[in-house]
Amino acid sequence: MALIELEEVRRSYRIGGSWIRALDGVSLTIQQGDFLAVRGPSGSGKSTFMNILGCLDRPTEGRYRLDGIDVGRLHHDALAAIRNRSIGFVFQSFNLLPRASALENVELPLLYRRMWPGKRRRRALAMLEQFGLGSRASHKPAELSGGQQQRVAIARALVTEPSVILADEPTGALDSQTGQEIMSIFRGLNGEGLTVIVVTHEAEVAESADRIVTFRDGRVVPEDVGTRSGLNS
Ligand code: ADP
Ligand code: ADP
């Protein structure tokens, strides 16, 4: 069974008297363990696609199955439960809580689960240590470099053991060497079986992926499905 299955997904927005089709018939299958890069010009539907994959938004038409569950039909609370259980998010600007320590930021997703605080803390610390940040646990985000902040954000995304990581321009705020370090973390995690989906404008970053999907006008450009063609286009 595929981890992610989209069938003819459409997402429309009503603006004034007219409709905008942010996604206009997207069909795509993503297997567990895939590493997918998502490209396309601004306004082509990438954010809308990621919001739907992440259960932050629902298709207007069509079907989205995540782990066999037809999530497009779920109500808000059920959608939030699936999101918290199955999805890890990584953002361009890290989105860490500025007043919280690195450790508290990583613990945060576990607060929503009934987990004893000592266990929560140990698990969060183990995640930080996995990314070489054990000695930075008590630092606030502003006391860390961009690359360190993104590693804290990756630790936070993984602490709940999600089935898929959705990363929106995760290297966009980093210099290219740090960006490569972040991508090699994703490659390593993917090597351990994690499904990774990364939106990127950078060809170098897209080359880390096994598969590139290019969006244009709310559709997937057909020749890019399942191939590495278009890498240098
Ligand atoms: P990208 O991430 O590739 O820049 P988006 O998914 O953000 O593309 O946008 C796709 C299209 O949908 C654009 O025309 C955008 O203006 C429109 N759009 C996206 N979100 C909304 C929204 N919440 N309300 C109205 N229009 C939107
Ligand atoms: P990105 O940098 O990822 O392309 P955008 O700046 O296009 O992001 O959009 C940021 C957020 O605003 C997204 O969640 C998108 O859905 C929403 N958005 C984009 N275009 C519009 C629009 N025309 N009207 C309302 N919301 C929009």
TrEMBL record:
Q: Name one GO molecular function term.
A: ATP binding
Q: Which UniProt keywords apply?
A: ATP-binding, Nucleotide-binding, Transport
- The residue ranges of the ABC transporter domain are 4-233
Coiled-coil regions in this chain?
A: none
What InterPro entries does the database record attribute to this sequence?
AAA+_ATPase, ABC_transporter-like_ATP-bd, ABC_transporter-like_CS, ABC_transpr_LolD-like, MacB-like_ATP-bd, P-loop_NTPase
Under Pfam families, the record lists: ABC_tran
Task: Tell me where the transmembrane regions lie.
Answer: none
- Lineage: superkingdom: Bacteria
Q: Which family does it belong to?
A: Belongs to the ABC transporter superfamily.
> What is the official name of this protein in its record?
ABC transporter ATP-binding protein
Q: What is the source species?
A: Mesorhizobium dulcispinae
What does the record give as the organism's lineage? Bacteria, Pseudomonadati, Pseudomonadota, Alphaproteobacteria, Hyphomicrobiales
